[in-house]
Design a protein that fits this description.
single chain, 215 residues, alpha/beta, 2-enoyl-CoA Hydratase, Chain A, domain 1, seven-stranded mixed β-sheet, two-stranded antiparallel ribbon, 22% strand
């Protein structure tokens, strides 16, 4: 079935990604991402499900041949994944590119198909309007984009790879290469968390306020 329909203006409208519920001891929700990401509306039901899921539920996100898409359209879904108390497991097959890789990195666990391959790159963007508006928007987009990319791929790409990507270099990974980097990323964040907790324990405790002496 064609997943797109024509709007009144003749342009194709993106259809919402499907969501299923599979009865089990608690329940498994299945979210299918199998097209380009173009609008937040595609995640409307998926975001609701992530917000409703309980800790003993499970979420299965199946991402297949996703060419990536709009960063802003995906932001709400990523936020819902981070907040969801249920375990989010992702199954990735075929090409998972660009914004699709950032979704995959947010999963609690994942499995990859034999034909999985990923593309990581800096993406495309544009700003329009008056010259002053163009300059202001372009500067914001550059600073914001660099910060978001570095947050998304921290521990997964080296600093040099990050710089190369932001300069326009494409990074292609197969399933084995992805798994190797994912394991290193897991150790990276574990060490970072342990250091943060150690540093917090070293901080001196605030002294209790002493009562004023009685006259």
């Amino acid at each position: 079935m064609n997943k797109q329909k024509r709007s009144q203006y003749g342009e194709e409208e993106s259809q919402e990604f499907s969501v299923q519920f599979i009865p089990d001891k608690s329940g498994t929700y299945v979210i299918e991402i199998d097209d380009a990401i173009e609008s937040p509306k595609q995640f409307s039901t998926a975001v609701q499900i992530l917000g409703m899921a309980k800790e003993d539920d499970s979420i299965e996100v199946r991402i297949t041949n996703c060419p990536g898409g709009n960063v802003g359209a995906t932001d709400g879904f990523l936020h819902a994944m981070r907040k969801c108390p249920a375990h989010v497991h992702m199954i990735a097959c075929g090409g998972v590119h660009s914004m699709g890789t950032q979704i995959l990195l947010e999963a609690d666990s994942f499995e990859l198909g034999n034909g999985f391959h990923a593309l990581i790159h800096c993406g495309q963007d544009g700003a329009y309007g008056n010259v002053n508006e163009y300059r202001a928007k372009s500067k914001f987009d550059e600073d914001f984009g660099v910060r978001k990319f570095k947050e998304a791929y921290e521990g997964f790409l080296s600093n040099k790879e990050m710089d190369d990507m932001l300069e326009g270099k494409d990074i292609w990974l197969d399933a084995q290469q992805w798994c190797e980097r994912a394991e290193k990323r897991s150790h990276y964040f574990k060490a970072k968390y342990e250091k943060m907790m150690k540093d917090q324990n070293k901080k001196p405790r605030a002294k209790k306020a002493q009562a004023a002496p009685e006259a």
